[in-house]
Automatic annotation (TrEMBL):
InterPro entries: HIF_prolyl_hydroxylases (IPR051559), Oxoglu/Fe-dep_dioxygenase_dom (IPR005123), Pro_4_hyd_alph (IPR006620), Pro_4_hyd_alph_FE2OG_OXY (IPR044862). One of its GO terms (biological process) is cellular response to hypoxia. This is Fe2OG dioxygenase domain-containing protein. The keyword Oxidoreductase applies. PROSITE patterns: FE2OG_OXY. The lineage of its organism: Bacteria, Pseudomonadati, Pseudomonadota, Gammaproteobacteria, Moraxellales.
Amino acid sequence: MTTASLPMPWDVDQIVNQLDEFGFSIIKQAYDDVFFTALNTECLSKMDKFRAAAIQDGVISKIRSDHILWINETQSLAHKHILALENLSQSLNQAFFLGIKNVEAHFACYNVGEFYALHRDNPQQKNHRVISSVFYIHKTWQESWGGQLRLQDKKMNWHMIEPTANSIVIFESNLLHEVITSKQKRLSITAWLRNDLTL
């Protein structure tokens, strides 16, 4: 994995400790305002390329209704976020021996009325997703707009996590979670840290 060129101003020790205890961690004010604003602009400029999300083999499922765009190096700012996650992966590998080898990610847009029902990102260890992350890249959010991430932690306690702008939620991919129906356009980068080499 490559080293991120974008500074990663995150408290890695806190992330590791929270993942160890609860299975998830929240990073607030993940990046500086200049980068965050530019990334928001990059996402909005690609909206015409978003497509309805599929679950597997291109099959559209009724359990989700969001729209996505997979990220590659042509989305240069989003790719820098992936590089930062790759950098974080090195620390997670050292702490938990996860064997993370790469990161896959897409932009996600939840329009008004869209949701993602209760699920796991790695059900019954059927894929190579180890750690999931959601980076909220809309500029503002209000609690009344919905769109929360409802997540069950390692201790079987439920949390309602607000999609606060410029924050990142990192969690074990086998944890149950859902996205509550959104009442405004909700933008994010969803990424998975994987322990295989094939995307």
